[in-house]
């Protein structure tokens, strides 16, 4: 084997394990679920591949409200996380100094606890008879018969809390890479601190905003834990429906079809979001 041929094959050798991993644990299960979604039958007699594409239209018409609710909840949580995470990431990147590692540890600390336990803790915090709700009632932010538990707000709050680190970390990494001399140059040329932040820092942080938004929105749209623990039947998300279909009802074709519809919807929303932000800007910033 010639040297030039070995040089051309070397990248394939390095990429081989990753490609094998993707084929075994992503592509193969994806193809399997696609075939399952096109089956007909029931859990008693079994399922046969009949190429029944009508399951997609039936699933979409039956659970359109859950799809819409999932997108709205995930979008709201993503926006809330961005509002909270940007100042926090900015502080850690520029103001934390020698305590930077400590603040990063505080951000990732919730990952040391199960998501179920974290969500259950929120259930205790927003209990109707708890201190938080009682205080909000005393100051008039919640009516006397109002509640936080089992509401849409509780579900969005839980999603926002659980996925906040996924927004903070990409933003921190992006902000830390920004050359501070650019900000100093903007202020030297007459820009105020706020104008320099708006016209220099924020545009350069767009890759982190994009990455953080994806890392929050994608798992949030398919989440079922927060809606199950903090919500009610009126706040059911599509993840709850898919879980119920797979585990309880054993309606595998509908569950698989719902999963593919959700994945397609997320890909479309990501493409639109990337188009609005500007893929050229993202590529240039990444380089």
Provide structural commentary:
It is found in: Cell membrane. With 287 residues, the protein is mostly helical. Helix content is 76%, strand content 3%. The chain has a two-stranded antiparallel ribbon. The longest helix has 35 residues.
Concise description?
This protein is 76% helix and 3% strand. The chain has 287 residues and is mainly alpha-helical. The chain has a two-stranded antiparallel ribbon with strand order 1-2.
Outline the fold blueprint.
Blueprint: H1 3-37, E1 39-42, E2 46-49, H2 54-62, H3 64-94, H4 100-108, H5 115-125, H6 131-138, H7 152-177, H8 180-188, H9 193-204, H10 206-221, H11 225-230, H12 238-249, H13 252-277, H14 279-286
Antiparallel strand pairs: 1-2
Helix pairs in contact: 1-13, 2-13, 3-7, 3-10, 7-10, 8-9, 10-13, 12-13
Keywords: Cell membrane, Membrane, Transmembrane, Transmembrane helix, Transport
Transmembrane segments: 12-31, 71-94, 101-121, 153-173, 202-222, 255-277
Subcellular location: Cell membrane
Number of H- or I-type helical stretches:
14
Number of strands: 2
Largest sheet: 2 strands, antiparallel
What is the ordering of alpha helices and beta strands? Answer: HEEHHHHHHHHHHHHH
**The CATH homologous superfamily of the domain at 67-237:** MetI-like
- CATH class group of the domain at 67-237: Mainly Alpha
CATH architecture descriptor of the domain at 67-237: Orthogonal Bundle
Global mean pLDDT: 87
User: What name does CATH use for the topology of the domain at 67-237?
Assistant: MetI-like fold
Rg, Cα atoms, Å: 23 Å
In percent, how helical is the residue content? over 70%
Structural class: mainly alpha
Oligomeric organization of the protein chains: single chain
Which parts are unreliable, with pLDDT below 50 for 5 consecutive residues or more? 282-287
Strand line-up of the largest beta sheet: 1-2
Distance between the termini: 35 Å
Which overall shape is indicated by the principal axes computed on the Cα atoms? globular
Beta-sheet strand percentage? Answer: under 5%
């Amino acid at each position: 084997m010639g040297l030039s041929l070995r040089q051309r094959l070397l990248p394939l050798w390095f990429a081989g394990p990753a490609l094998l991993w993707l084929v075994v644990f992503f592509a193969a299960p994806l193809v399997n679920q696609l075939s399952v979604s096109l089956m007909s039958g029931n859990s008693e007699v079994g399922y046969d591949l009949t190429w029944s594409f009508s399951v997609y239209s039936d699933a979409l018409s039956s659970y359109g409200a859950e799809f819409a609710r999932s997108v709205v909840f995930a979008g709201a949580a993503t926006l809330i996380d961005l509002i909270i995470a940007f100042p926090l990431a900015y502080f850690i990147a520029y103001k934390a100094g020698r305590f930077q590692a400590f603040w990063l540890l505080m951000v990732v600390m919730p990952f040391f606890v199960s998501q179920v336990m974290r969500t259950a803790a929120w259930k205790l915090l927003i209990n109707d008879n708890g201190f938080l709700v009682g205080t909000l009632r005393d100051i008039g932010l919640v009516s006397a018969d109002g509640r936080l538990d089992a509401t849409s707000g509780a579900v969005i709050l839980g999603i926002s809390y659980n996925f906040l680190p996924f927004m903070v970390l990409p933003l921190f990494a992006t902000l830390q890479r920004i050359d501070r001399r650019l900000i100093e140059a903007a202020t030297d040329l007459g820009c105020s601190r706020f104008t320099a932040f708006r016209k220099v820092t924020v545009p350069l942080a767009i890759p982190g905003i994009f990455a953080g938004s994806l890392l929050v929105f994608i798992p949030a749209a398919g989440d079922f834990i927060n809606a199950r623990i903090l919500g009610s039947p009126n706040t059911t998300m599509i993840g709850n429906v898919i879980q119920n279909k797979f585990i309880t009802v054993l309606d595998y074709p509908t569950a698989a079809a719902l999963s593919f519809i959700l994945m397609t919807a997320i890909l479309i929303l990501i493409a639109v979001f990337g188009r609005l932000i500007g893929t050229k800007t993202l590529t240039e910033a990444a380089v």
